[in-house]
């Protein structure tokens, strides 16, 4: 039985007109039976007896409920008018049963104001028709009709409120689903951007070092085979390091749960010394200095632990800035890296004495000259943009410096901004180029 009813409900929902027609015919049959039961017993009706007209009005009023889904309030008003007319013509028969599904329909499918008007119209119709029939003294029957009308109105309103509540829940779930999808897309885009920055930093640095070493090996291959072999060994080590770092970065893109990505510690300020060694081997003499509060010299081990994100951002800043100096500063240039850790702030300063700045740096210029005298006199390779810039006049040096701000330095700007830092990138007074960032540190 339960399975039969469960299969019948969907069919009734899919065929509302047939359902309403069956309901209208049932109401007509019940109303006609009530009308016959209300007729006075005795002989045949007289010529002025309106029984035939009453039955016609009853049938018309009940059959109109088949259109209750189209214009329920209009149908209700017409049924009430027919019921009052029927009461004025004959005491037999009533259409109060036909008003019940109409009141329910309006309460369940229309707004509160219209449903209240329908409830008031139903009560008023019952009162007027009862007055016309002269049977207001039977309070029990009228209270029963009013109670039934009120009950169906409340059922209709509760169903409407429940549908509205469920609709709001569905809308909220849909909004939350769209918000989650948007957050997921944003997270994926952010992760892709992060991976792109990491890949750029790793590839740009190591490939630049490998390019310089390869050019040096090519130039000294005939005259200094041992030096060429050392350069090739450095290229091999740099390539292996680049592959290892790229393997760690790209490992997060693997989706198979059975193949976990190899994870290692991210580089930080403690690895800057190794980075400086690589720059020395690549032909860019670089001095590294750690400072504590008040500018006192410190060691990498003496720097307090930093937040992982700031630590990685500082390392990538130094890596990209030194790579930039290696590619663009020119032959014989030197670089300086200063890391100062103070309470509440970390300052990272990378500068070089690139083109057009020789002899203009005072004490640091003398250190650069000493470094150049100790370094091999092999000519370092230049990129096409750097070579062209070296041949221009002093007015073109600013343009050459601007060309040094590429995607890597733009990525540095994004990293510094991510942690609320302040970044300065550009030519330094007296010649050369500098990258300086200040990261706020929370207690």
Write the layout of secondary structure elements.
Elements: H1 2-14, H2 16-38, H3 51-63, H4 72-89, H5 96-109, H6 112-133, H7 139-220, H8 225-250, H9 272-282, E1 286-291, E2 297-298, H10 308-328, E3 335-342, E4 345-352, H11 363-374, H12 384-390, H13 397-403, H14 407-418, E5 422-427, E6 433-440
Biased composition (Basic and acidic residues): 347-356
GO cellular component, one term: membrane
Domain Histidine kinase/HSP90-like ATPase: 312-442
Walk me through this protein's architecture:
With 443 residues, the chain is an alpha+beta fold. The chain has helices spanning 2-14, 16-38, 51-63, 72-89, 96-109, 112-133, 139-220, 225-250, 272-282, 308-328, 363-374, 384-390, 397-403, 407-418, and strands at 286-291, 297-298, 335-342, 345-352, 422-427, 433-440. A 6-stranded mixed β-sheet has the order 2-1-3-4-6-5. The chain crosses the membrane at residues 21-38, 50-66, 73-90, 102-124, 136-156. Keywords: ATP-binding, Kinase, Membrane, Nucleotide-binding, Phosphoprotein, Transferase, Transmembrane, Transmembrane helix, Two-component regulatory system. It comes from Planobispora longispora. Residues 347-356 have a biased composition (Basic and acidic residues).
